[in-house]
Amino acid sequence: MSDTSVKLRIEGMTCGACVARIERALHAVDGVRRARVNLTTETATVDSAGAGVEMLIAAVRAAGYDARRAQSAGRELTELESNQAADLQRQRQAMVQAIGLALPIIGLEWAGAVLQSGHAGGHVWWRILQGLLCAMLMLSPAGGPILAGGVRAIIHRAPNMDLLITLGVVAAFVSSAVSVVAPGVDMYHFHAAAMILGFINVGKYLETRARREASSAVAALARRTPKTALRVRDGGVETIPVAQVAVGDRIRVPDDTVVPVDGTVCEGSAAVDQSMMTGESLPVTRAVGDAVLGGTVVCDGTITIVATSLGESSAIAAVLRAVEDAQAGKTGMQRIADRVAGVFVPVVVALAVLTLFGWGLAGEGFAPGLKAMIAVLVIACPCAMGLATPTAVLVATGAAALRGILVRDAAALEAAGRIDFVMFDKTGTLTAGEPVVTSMVAMGEATDLSALWRLAGSAEQFSQHPLARAIVAEAKCHVVTLTDPTAFRSEPGRGVSATVDGRAVLVGGSTFLADRGVDVPRPDDAHRARMVEGQSTVWIAVDGEIGGWIGLADAVRDSAAAAVREMRRLGVEVAMVTGDATGTALAVASSLEIFAVDPEATPEDKSLFVRRKQASGARVAFVGDGINDAPALTAADVGIAFAAGTDIAKAAADITLMGDDLTQVPAAIRLARRSVRVIKQNLFWAFIYNVLAIPLAATGRVSPGIAAAAMMVSSITVVLNSLRLRTAPNR
Ligand code: ADP
Ligand code: MG
Fold first, then answer.
1. Is 448 a catalytic residue?
2. Are 34 and 47 in contact (CB under 8 A)?
3. Which site from 79, 580, 661, 709 is most exposed, i.e. has the minimal number of CB atoms within 10 Å?
4. Is the Cβ–Cβ distance between 298 and 256 less than 8 Å?
5. What CATH number is attached to the domain comprising 445?
6. Predicted confidence band at 324 (pLDDT cuts at 50, 70, 90)?
């Protein structure tokens, strides 16, 4: 049975322990191969062979959470956004109530001490008042959901952070209540319970706010496309919902508006700001015949476009999907953190019990032991661990997408952050991939140039290679008609063979022809001169005899030199591999100051070079555009392709660049490096915090109230640290 991937929306998660628990529950379902749960986006992605959605949802429910099937990319994001807005509203109210009830309880603790100083001992009225307020707080929206979560955790035997807080608060409340009714007992912790719930609610509010901010960049993408479009029909213009636009409809896009759907300009011309889709900072002119993407902004002029792709197949949907997928995945580091968080809670409960007994055994008595135990329970919440990676990945992939860099998943982001060697394909990557024919020279028997153009042009008609397209275009200028070839074969990175007008035609590199028994001469001066200029040359053979060669010039991309320089500054080594001839390859490489060049490489050679480099310890990124690059893109630690490149290259890539700006490559590496740094910092602080805090709490050096404050600060630090990735990096 083939694998299917299902996305679920999960409700009720609070921390990394929940993530681990749900993943375990999903993995236990028959047929599930892989389940990934994301705390930040509140989703689960499940790859399975034949496990029904209902079974998956049932498994999540049995684990104590709620789940349902997720909607399409765009809709999910809008929904996540409105959910988050409602969440924030709820959290704010809970926070206000928590503070409103906690302050009098804490105030009474101080005031009461003063009042009591006259009367020795005795249980006075204000303790009872404190107890009543505390009970109200625990049952209010500030305490109720947490305690309910804790009880649910016990029922489902799924220890989580709610459980720790519940145990802490209940221990504080019960010991205080006992003190009120039992004479001689003096273990009042009402104010501790109040502080715990107070700080937790303040923390939850701030965290919800920061998390919402983190995903708002992504939601902004979804909001970017307008909801209506101006359809041109029978000379008139009507406003219709974008959902009703059909492929082939003519859509008017006035000055200063956002393009509603992907399309091709059929009337007018305008400057289009594509920065949000491609990261290009300057507007580009788009005239009749040019493609425009939904989500870009027309900023000077009015155009009419013919809609080409809609809904799920549009460019913006691809961006949204890419961002969502990136956020659903997990880095290797987070996988470890989640596993730790999963065993963390039971360990903390055990430590808390040990603390209680430890104090008892040390002869210090029950009362201080209880206080230390409450502090341990509260301070050790592993929520910062659960947030460490997802928030950083969310912010980083969102920021990258807004700059036209689509990162496939969290693991790709992590890998990109470790790259120290980048290999570029030449044709179509370092060069624009829009070659033009500069010369054709006939040799041997062939003297009639038009006849040669007909043979070469016809043979190339079915090839997708940029050189082939240029040759076909040029041939059409020289002969009136081309004919469909028979026995057409294309060898990626080498050339094509075909039968045209009953004659066997080969077009390609010298080794390609030589392998087929053609006697290829050494290039003459004119031929070599083309190569020194960095032009590509291909040979033509007819019926096994050399017939001539064609010179093609392909401009090096404007951004290439800057990209290479930038990469060096980052300490990344740069190399070029190409299927093109040595002379041409060296000329292009030296103009870009690339000193490591591997010419005449087959697709297999390219991936071999990548593997060889990896074997020497380098972490290799490969940047390519064509079918011939797919093996190398897959072999590399990080494959980088252009959205305009072939689908096969994109499918093999970990990072897709929306524009054609090569400086996006160093930009992506830089962002990824910062992300890895932030993730490491987050995990470090989350772990170190617990390692230091637990002994302090266990030995009675931290009061329960302060423990609650510390735990709030630790998760907020992690979220704020991740938010730093939103800003454009300079270094
Ligand atoms: P790169 O590795 O730089 O992207 P390719 O691998 O696409 O270049 O092509 C390498 C060489 O293979 C070209 O320079 C050309 O000699 C030959 N070649 C590939 N495809 C064709 C084709 N369709 N027609 C003629 N030559 C081709
Ligand atoms: Mg190429």
1. no
2. yes
3. 79
4. yes
5. 3.40.1110.10
6. low
Ligand 1 contacts CB of residue 425 (under 6 A): yes
Question: pLDDT higher for 191 or 306?
Answer: 306
297 close to 254: Cβ distance less than 8 angstroms: no
pLDDT in the model for residue 421: 95
Which ligand is the nearest neighbour of the Cα of 469? 1
Query: Ligand 1: which of 497, 600, 628 to mutate, most ligand atoms within 8 Å of CB?
Result: 628
546: in domain? yes
Q: What is the pTM of this model?
A: 0.73
For residue 508 and ligand 1, the question of a CB distance below 6 A is answered with yes
- For ligand 1, atom 7, name the residue with the nearest CA: 493
Nearest ligand to the C-alpha atom of residue 466: 1
What residue owns the CA closest to ligand 1's atom 5?
A: 493
Distance from the alpha carbon of residue 175 to the mean position of ligand 1, in angstroms = 80
Contact 609, 423 (CB under 8 A): yes
pLDDT tens digit sequence for 614-647: 999 999 999 988 777 888 888 899 999 887 767 7
Residue 175 pLDDT: 82
**Is the per-residue pLDDT at 77 higher than 70?**
no
- Percent residues over pLDDT 70 in the chain: 87
Cβ–ligand 1 distance for 547 under 6 Å, the answer: no
Residue tagged active-site, from 425, 605, 625, 661: 425
Residue where a domain stops, chosen among 278, 313, 348: 313
Residue 464 CA: nearest ligand 1 atom is 23
Mind listing the pLDDT tens digit for each residue in 23-42?
A: 888 888 888 888 888 777 77
Atom of ligand 1 nearest to the CA of 603: 6
Start-to-end Cα distance in the chain? 48
End position of a domain, from candidates 506, 526, 555: 555
491 Cα: distance to centroid of ligand 1 (angstroms)? 9
Tell me the CA–centroid distance for residue 599 and ligand 2, in Å: 12
Contact (CB, 8 A) for 283 and 259? no
Residue 628 near ligand 1, beta carbon < 6 Å: yes
Contacts of 452 by beta carbon, 8 Å cutoff, 6+ apart:
440, 442, 446, 540, 542, 547, 548
Q: Once rounded to an integer, what is the mean pLDDT over residues 440-459?
A: 84
What share of the chain in percent tops pLDDT 90? Answer: 16
Report the nearest-CA residue for atom 17 of ligand 1.
494
What is residue 478's three-state secondary structure? helix
Report residues near ion ligand 2: CB below 5 Å.
Answer: 425, 427-428, 625-626
User: How far is C-alpha 48 from the geometric centre of its chain's CA atoms?
Assistant: 22
Residue 590: HSE in the Cβ half-sphere, 13 Å Cα cutoff: 10
CATH number at residue 254: 2.70.150.10
C-alpha 577 to ligand 2 mean position (Å): 9
pLDDT at 52: 79
Q: Which ligand is nearest to the CA of 426?
A: 1
In terms of Cβ atoms closer than 10 Å to its own Cβ (0-12, 13-18, 19+), residue 537 is buried
| 625 Cβ closer than 6 Å to some ligand 1 atom | no
Q: What total number of domains does the chain contain?
A: 2
CA of 598 to the centre of ligand 2 (A): 13
Cβ of residue 427 lying under 6 Å from some atom of ligand 1: yes
| Beta-strand pair 655-657/638-642 | parallel
**Domain-located, residue 211:** no
pLDDT value at residue 725: 86
Q: Which residue has the higher pLDDT, 608 or 171?
A: 608
Give me the pLDDT at residue 538, please: 93
Under 8 Å between Cβ of 317 and 311: yes
The reply to whether 706 falls in a domain is no
User: Please, what is the average pLDDT of the chain?
Assistant: 82
Specify if 304 maps to a domain.
yes
Tell me whether strands 620-624 and 638-642 are parallel, antiparallel or unpaired.
parallel
What mean pLDDT comes out for the span 49-60? 82
Using the structure block, give the residue that is written with the tokens 């020795």.
Answer: 120
Q: The domain containing residue 270 runs over which residues?
A: 228-313
